[in-house]
Amino acid sequence: MTETPYTFDLNDPDCIPSRYDNHIRRTLTSMRGQYQDTAAYDAMLAKEDTLLYEVYELQRPHVAGEVLHGISIVHPGKVGDEYFMTKGHFHTVLETAEVYHCLKGEGCMVMETPEGEWAVAELRPGVVLYVLPRWAHRSVNTGAGDLVTLFAYPGHAGHDYGTIEQKGFRKLVVERGGGAVVVDNPRWSGGQ
Ligand code: PA5
Ligand code: NI
């Protein structure tokens, strides 16, 4: 890890940063149980463990004074009528925020709090999104090409994936009649 200030650029046509320490590739198997249409999920997985998204991280210590940053690339596609998306998470330290800057593509960020508030923010090139502390977040690619974002969050935030893995987000983003719409997640309806 370097101990002098550094730069990197995003001039690569696919927005792969000119410098990174860690490259995460998430495929269908890492999203088991997250897509509504389990038959479509199983059929897709039977053919190939499709690559859904990638994250390029710059390595910094996981301490409060640092800002962890990198590039997230969600590829285009759907499982059934549900668009490719990230796992999504709360931060382990709930009172930590995150900034996203959309560099390329079309999509949205689905967000919610533990108390049940929810929000969906459109992402397109040039948009900057501030995810407040306490809000879980998931990027969804509703476009035909890659959805690319630059993210930055406090070094001590951590990722809590378990809460979302149980029931998913309260809202899903699906294709209806050729367009993206936000619908209730049936796993949350009734009793909530
Ligand atoms: O910290 C973030 O919110 C991002 O860096 C995400 O980790 C990235 O977009 C991948 O999503 P997830 O961590 O939910 O798999
Ligand atoms: Ni985050």
What's this entry about, in short?
The chain has about 190 residues and is mainly beta.
Describe the structure in your own words.
- There is one protein chain.
- The chain has 192 residues and is mainly beta.
- The protein is built from 2 helices and 15 strands.
- It has helices at residues 38-47, 162-167; strands at 22-27, 51-58, 67-74, 78-79, 82-83, 90-91, 98-104, 107-112, 118-123, 128-131, 136-141, 147-154, 159-160, 171-176, 179-184.
- The strands form 5 sheets. A 6-stranded antiparallel sheet has the order 1-2-3-12-7-10, with no helix packed on it. Strands 9-8-11 form a 3-stranded antiparallel sheet, with no helix packed on it. The protein has a two-stranded antiparallel sheet with strand order 4-5.
- A hairpin with a 2-residue loop joins strand 14 (171-176) and strand 15.
- The structure holds 5-phosphoarabinonic acid (PA5) and nickel (II) ion (NI).
- 5-phosphoarabinonic acid (PA5) binds next to strand 11 and strand 12.
- Proportion in helices: under 10%
**What best-fitting shape do the alpha-carbon axes yield?**
globular
How would a textbook summarize the main sheet? Answer: 6 strands, antiparallel
Q: What is the overall pLDDT average?
A: 96
Q: In percent terms, what proportion of residues is strand? A: 35-45%
Structural class: mainly beta
Order of helices and strands: EHEEEEEEEEEEEEHEE
Task: Give the number of DSSP strands.
Answer: 15
Bound molecules: 5-phosphoarabinonic acid, nickel (II) ion
Measured distance between first and last alpha carbons: 46 Å
Which strand order does the major sheet show?
Answer: 1-2-3-12-7-10
Oligomeric category? single chain
Unreliable stretches: none
Q: What is the CA-atom radius of gyration, in angstroms?
A: 16 Å
Counted by DSSP, the helix tally is: 2
